[in-house]
């Protein structure tokens, strides 16, 4: 018994009384003890003192039991009976090991150990704690069995949640989870970036204003926004092409797919909508379509030019040989310009580069016979073929009749470009050191071609002067924006 | 002869009830008409235990004749009680 030490000055029970007390307790002839607590003597019942503890053990949410040294169950609470599906009367007397799928954990350990308990449903994850105890001089074991299924389930849910969150955060597609009434419950990082407004809680059509974009999207386009939200939340879609109005970025193209979101009972509780961006793919397709159209157009143009040049050359040629030389030269000039355009993917060419290429065959051994001098100017693709034809004709004329027809004459090419908005190119071809130039006859195809090309194909003006120093030709035409165009102007208008 | 038997009421525990019954039986047999028994309820007034140096319940205290004597337990062993109380069997 614990109690306050007795005051040695006070008469107290003799040692024989103490021995008698111990003997009486051992023989079970005592109901209670008197102990001296801080508030004076207190009576502590012996008989029935374990009743509240038993009640407590019966009420706890863990299985609890006592084991004999050989593992035989001496006592089990009703919670263990519920966990195992075996009533208490049948638990008592069993061996503890038989309750577990792989036998009971080691009884020597003090730390809780995870194990699988046989249960009605098969098995149950549990944590088992055991402690050695001596009861009435007999070595026993106390054990508790804690049901971990809720904990395991919570961990599984947490893991699934982390997994889902990871997908939503890292997916390159926009992923949107809709409730059954078409409101956004979750949205991936990409989806949030695309949304017109913070999407959570909004209807899909509010957060993602879409425009139906192909024939198959007719079903989507027919519905009002409210109906569209319900449709997306309840019906599956696969690869419907749509355009989305994205703030500050205009319209972007997406493939929209939607599928049901199922709960544990396989019932639909909403839908998962994905938006896969195809803007670049669409742009690439459009460019490809435009390129094919451009190619068709240019081939037709080139054939028309070749046909026109051939006809006019034949009409003005004195002989078949003369036709051959002239026609071949003109076609070569076109080919050179075409090569340059192809190298730059029809985006245009530097003026100096074009002039150098066109006039190269006429320089001969002297590089300085044709001087090229001017600021960098990028010619629009549409201007390249006409201009190459113009300078091919000028160079041919110069080699036949002008400054390039003798050993000492030179040609100087100069240009300047005016500033925006309407950029104009002023270009001068000046011959010197050659024989005196005279105006060609009215029937000369070369001069006619030059005038028509400058006037109709370049939308410019031309001034051709002829004097004792040689010919001087001044062109002026607008530099229109570069780039591909399906509607490029015809290169050469057939002269009448 | 006066005796004090410490026990509890109203929910009397079994050893105390047995002690009172055994004591009464002994006294009637060996000290008829010559004894008084006082039963005190320590559950009601635990301080009385300190006064009489009671450490276990039930405890029989013989106050008179002196010297004071104690017997702990349910008094089921009559011979031991008689010896303890110096009663000569009649």
Task: Provide keyphrases for this structure.
heterodimer; A: 496 residues; alpha+beta; 5-stranded antiparallel sheet; 14 helices; 37% helix; rod-shaped; disordered N terminus; disordered C terminus; B: 90 residues; 27% strand
Short description:
Chain A is built from 14 helices and 20 strands.
Task: Give an account of the 3D structure.
The complex is a heterodimer of chains A (496) and B (90). Chain A has helices spanning 15-26, 51-59, 78-84, 88-91, 149-170, 189-194, 204-207, 218-222, 225-234, 279-316, 320-343, 351-359, 381-401, 445-457; strands spanning 32-37, 40-45, 63-68, 73-76, 113-119, 122-135, 138-147, 174-179, 184-187, 210-212, 237-246, 250-262, 268-277, 349-350, 370-373, 378-379, 410-417, 424-432, 461-467, 470-478. Chain A has 496 residues and is an alpha+beta fold. A six-stranded antiparallel sheet of chain A has the order 9-8-13-12-11-10. In chain A, strands 4-3-7-6-5 form a five-stranded antiparallel sheet. A five-stranded mixed sheet of chain A has the order 15-17-18-20-19, with helices on one face. In chain A, strand 3 and strand 4 form a beta hairpin. The longest helix of chain A has 38 residues, at 279-316. Chain B is of the alpha+beta class. Chain B has helices at residues 14-30, 47-51, 78-84; strands at 2-7, 36-41, 56-57, 59-64, 69-72. Chain B has a four-stranded mixed sheet, covered by helices on one side. In chain B, helix 1 (14-30) links the parallel strand 1 (2-7) and strand 2 (36-41). The longest helix of chain B is centred in the N-terminal third of the chain and has 17 residues, at 14-30. The model of chain B has no long low-confidence stretch (mean pLDDT 79). The A-B interface holds A 1, 3, 11-13, 17-18, 20-21, 24-25, 27, 29-34, 36, 40-43, 45, 47 and B 7-8, 13-16, 42-43, 46-47, 49-50, 53-58, 70-74, 76.
């Amino acid at each position: 018994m614990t109690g306050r030490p007795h005051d040695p000055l006070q008469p107290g029970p003799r040692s024989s009384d103490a021995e008698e007390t111990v003997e009486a307790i051992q023989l079970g002839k005592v109901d209670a003890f008197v102990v001296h607590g801080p508030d004076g003597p207190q009576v502590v019942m012996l008989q029935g003192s374990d009743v509240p503890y038993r009640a407590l053990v019966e009420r706890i949410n863990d299985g609890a039991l006592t084991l004999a040294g050989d593992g035989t169950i001496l006592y089990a609470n009703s919670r263990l009976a519920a966990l195992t599906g075996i009533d208490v009367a049948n638990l008592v007397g069993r061996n503890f090991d038989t309750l577990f799928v792989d036998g009971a954990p080691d009884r020597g350990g003090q730390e809780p150990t995870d194990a699988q308990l046989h249960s009605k449903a098969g098995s149950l994850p549990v944590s088992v704690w055991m402690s050695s105890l001596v009861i009435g001089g007999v070595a026993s074991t106390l054990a508790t069995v804690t049901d971990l299924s809720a904990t395991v389930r919570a961990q599984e849910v947490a893991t699934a949640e982390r997994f889902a969150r990871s997908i939503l955060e890292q997916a390159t597609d926009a992923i949107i989870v809709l409730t059954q009434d078409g409101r956004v419950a979750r949205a991936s990082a990409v989806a949030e970036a695309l949304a017109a407004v913070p999407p959570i809680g909004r209807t899909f059509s509010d957060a993602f204003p879409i425009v139906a974009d192909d024939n198959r999207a007719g079903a989507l386009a027919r519905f009002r926004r409210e109906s569209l939200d319900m449709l997306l939340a309840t019906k599956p879609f696969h690869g419907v092409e749509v355009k989305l109005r994205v703030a500050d970025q205009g319209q972007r193209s997406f493939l929209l797919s939607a599928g049901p979101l199922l709960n544990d009972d396989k019932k639909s509780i909403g839908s998962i909508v994905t938006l896969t961006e195809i803007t670049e793919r669409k742009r690439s397709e459009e460019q490809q379509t435009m390129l094919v159209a451009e190619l068709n157009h240019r081939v037709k143009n080139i054939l028309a030019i070749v046909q026109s040049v051939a006809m006019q050359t034949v009409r003005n040629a004195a002989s078949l040989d003369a036709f051959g030389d002239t026609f071949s030269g003109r076609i070569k000039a076109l080919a050179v310009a075409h090569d340059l355009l192809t190298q730059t993917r029809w985006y245009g060419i530097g003026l100096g580069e074009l002039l150098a290429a066109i006039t190269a065959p006429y320089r001969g051994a002297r590089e300085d016979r044709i001087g090229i001098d001017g600021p960098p100017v990028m010619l629009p693709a549409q201007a390249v073929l006409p201009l190459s034809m113009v300078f091919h004709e000028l160079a041919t004329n110069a080699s036949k009749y002008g400054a390039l027809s003798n050993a000492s004459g030179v040609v100087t090419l100069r240009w300047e470009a005016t500033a925006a908005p309407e950029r104009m190119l002023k270009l001068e071809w000046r011959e010197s050191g050659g024989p005196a130039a005279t105006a060609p006859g009215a029937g000369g195809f070369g001069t006619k071609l030059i005038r028509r090309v400058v006037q109709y194909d370049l939308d410019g003006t031309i001034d051709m002067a002829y004097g004792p120093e040689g010919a001087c030709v001044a062109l002026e035409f607008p530099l229109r924006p570069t780039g591909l165009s399906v509607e490029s102007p015809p290169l050469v208008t057939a002269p009448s | 002869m006066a005796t004090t038997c410490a026990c509890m009421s109203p929910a009397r525990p079994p050893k105390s009830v047995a002690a009172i019954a055994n004591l009464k039986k002994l006294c009637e047999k060996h000290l008829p008409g010559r004894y008084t028994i006082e039963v005190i309820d320590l559950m009601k007034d635990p301080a009385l235990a300190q006064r009489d140096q009671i450490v276990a319940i039930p405890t029989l205290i013989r106050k008179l004749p002196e010297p004071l004597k104690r017997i702990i337990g349910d008094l089921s062993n009559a011979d031991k009680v008689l010896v303890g109380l110096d009663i000569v069997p009649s």
